Amino acid sequence: MNKLIEREKITSKKEKPDPSSLGFGKYFTDYMFVMDYEEEKGWHHPRLTPYAPIMLDPSSSVFHYGQAVFEGLKAYRTEDGRVLLFRPEQNIKRLNRSCQRMSMPPLDEELVLEALTQLVELEKEWVPREKGTSLYIRPFVIATEPSLGVKASKNYTFMIVLSPVGSYYGDQLQPINIYVEDEFVRAVNGGVGNAKTSGNYAASLQAQQKANELGYDQVLWLDAIEKKYAEEVGSMNIFFVINGEVVTPALSGSILSGITRASAIELIRSWGIPVREERISIDDIYAASARGELTEVFGTGTAAVVTPVGELNIHGRTVIVNDREIGEISKKLYQTITDIQLGKVKDPFRWTVEV
Amino acid sequence: MNKLIEREKITSKKEKPDPSSLGFGKYFTDYMFVMDYEEEKGWHHPRLTPYAPIMLDPSSSVFHYGQAVFEGLKAYRTEDGRVLLFRPEQNIKRLNRSCQRMSMPPLDEELVLEALTQLVELEKEWVPREKGTSLYIRPFVIATEPSLGVKASKNYTFMIVLSPVGSYYGDQLQPINIYVEDEFVRAVNGGVGNAKTSGNYAASLQAQQKANELGYDQVLWLDAIEKKYAEEVGSMNIFFVINGEVVTPALSGSILSGITRASAIELIRSWGIPVREERISIDDIYAASARGELTEVFGTGTAAVVTPVGELNIHGRTVIVNDREIGEISKKLYQTITDIQLGKVKDPFRWTVEV
Ligand SMILES: Cc1ncc(COP(=O)(O)O)c(C=O)c1O
Ligand SMILES: Cc1ncc(COP(=O)(O)O)c(C=O)c1O
Question: Are the beta carbons of A68 and B66 separated by less than 8 Å?
C-alpha cells in the first residue's frame, strides 16, 4: 500500500504557531493528502503534497450545487510522546455514508486510513503537547466538474488537511448556555441531516448568530416537523440525565450519528447506568427540570469532547441545570474519554490506533 | 460607475462552440466578472477579467460549510440583433435575499446590474442566434475564509460567468414525465428552501437519480411535514390547470420564489384567467385528474422557460395529463414569454432591459 501513495517534498517548513494561540482550524501543517476522481478512471493519483491553494474552474459544481462532504477527527499526543487516533475507521465509514447520500463516489476505506495515517506520521511534530490541544484531521471531498447542469458531478477531489487546535469552546469543561431554537430548523427526515455535508452547516449559521446575539453559546435544534423533539447541537449530540438515567435523541435520520455519541453510550452503559435512545420532547425536559429531576445535560463531539450545559432557554423560559456546575456523569465521561484518547488508561474497547 | 470596474484584456479569444452542441452550462465565454469581500474593506475591486481557474485555500469555508448562493438568468438575441435581459433586477434582489438567509454580506444591487450589463456587453458576440438558445448568466457568491471554525466566513468572492446554452430539456415544449417524490424531501419551513443556495441542489440529487432510474425526467417535491402538498420541481415552479382555473403552490417559505413563476402569474391574470396561489395537496390533483378536470400541468423556470408535464407518478399511480399533449395555456404562456424575451412583441410590463 505504502508505495501507492506518491510523495512530493516540501522545500521549507512553516513555523509552528504558539500553542496558546491555536484556536480552531486557523493553522495548517506543511503537507496535505490529495486524490482525484474521474468517471472513467475512478479514484486515482493518491499523493502527499505541500499544503497549498488549489485551482478550480469557476463553474466547478461544488461552488454551485454544493456536493461536498467532510469528516473531523483528532490525533492526540500521549504523555510518552506517542500519537493516537480515536476510532478513525468510524469516521471513514461515515464519510462513505455521507458520499452515498450526496450521490458521490465511495472511497476505498483502507486507502483512506492508510493516507490519513501516513499524513499524520509525516506531520507528527505538528501534534501539540499542551493540555486540551490536538491535531485536528479534516478529510473532505468536493465536486469539481466544470459544468452548470444540476446533476451529480463526474469529477471529485478528496483531500485531507491537518490543523493543530486548542479546545473548541475555549476553556475546557466550562458549562455552556444553549438556546432551544424554535423558529429555524436544521434538517428534516428525508433530507440530508444525517450526512456530514456542507449545506447543513451553512443552513445553521443564521440561528447560531441569533443565539449568540441573545447571549447563548450554541443552538439546540428541534425536529422540523413538530418543533418539539430535541435533535442535536451545532456540532455535538446532546444527552440528558433524568432521574439517574441517561437519555439521548435516537438516530432519527435527521441528526448526525456522532462517534463521540456512540462511544459515550457504550462507556456509560459499561458503568451500569442505563442509556435510552429515543424521541425526547423539549417540554418533557422542561417538566423534568421543574420536578428537579433533570440533573445533567451535556453535549458530545470530536471538537467539543464532552461539554456540560449550564443553562437552556426553552421557549423563552430559562432552565438552570445542576446550578451551572459540572455533573458527575459529564465529568467522569470527559475524564474517561480524554484518558483513553491520550493513552493514560487502558483502552478496553480498542478505540485508539497508534500512528 | 463605468470607471469603477477595472478591465483586464484577454490575449486570445476562444473559438465559439457549434450552436447545435451547446447543451447547458458546458462552455464559458472569454471574460468573467469578479469582486472580493473582506470584513474590513467590504466589497471591493470589481473587475472584468479573463475567464480562468481561481485559487482557493483548501480550508476555504465554501468547501466545508457550504456558504454559497447563486442566480441564473439569460441574455436573449432578438431577430434584429439586439441583446435583451429579462427582469435582471429581480434576480439581483433574490441574490441578496439568499445572501441574507445564508449570513452572507449583501451586494450593491446597482453595481451588480452594472457589472452584469458590462460583462454581457463585452461578450455580446457570444449571445447565440439559433432558436431556443441564449446566453446563460450565472452570478454567484462563495465563502473563502481559510478557517475550519463553523461560523459565517469573513471573506467572500462574487463572480459572474457566462455560458451560451441550448434548451435545458433538449427539444423544446416536449411534455416531460414527473415523479412525485414521497420519500426524500428537498426543504422544510424554517430551513433554507427559499434561498438559492448550493446545498439545496446537492440535497436533491439522490431523488433526481431515483426518478431517472424509474424513467422520469424530474422530481416533484412534496412538503417535508405532511408529504402531501406540492412544492416545486428540480429547477422549476409548478402550475396546475383545474376546471379552467390555474393554481400554483403558494410561497410557503420552503420553495424558491421563481421569477418566471411571478411573470407567468401576472401574464395569465392579464388574460382574465384566475390564478390561485395556495397549498395544493397531491391527492386533490389525483382526484381532479380522475374527474377529468386536470387539463394542464406545467413548470416554469429560467432554464426551462415553460415546460408542459405529460405524466405524473403519484404514489405509484400514473396520471396522464391532456393525453400528453401541450395544453392551451402552456402553449400561449410559452409563446408570450419567449416573444417578450426575444423582443418580438411589445413588452407591456417593461420586463426586458436592452444591453
Ligand atoms: C452536526 C453535528 N452533530 C454532531 C457531531 C458530533 O459527531 P462526532 O462525535 O463524530 O464528532 C458533529 C461533528 O463533529 C456535527 O457536526
Ligand atoms: C429550485 C428552483 N425552483 C424554481 C426555479 C425557477 O426560478 P426562476 O423562474 O427564477 O428561474 C429555480 C431556478 O431556476 C430553481 O432552482
Answer: yes
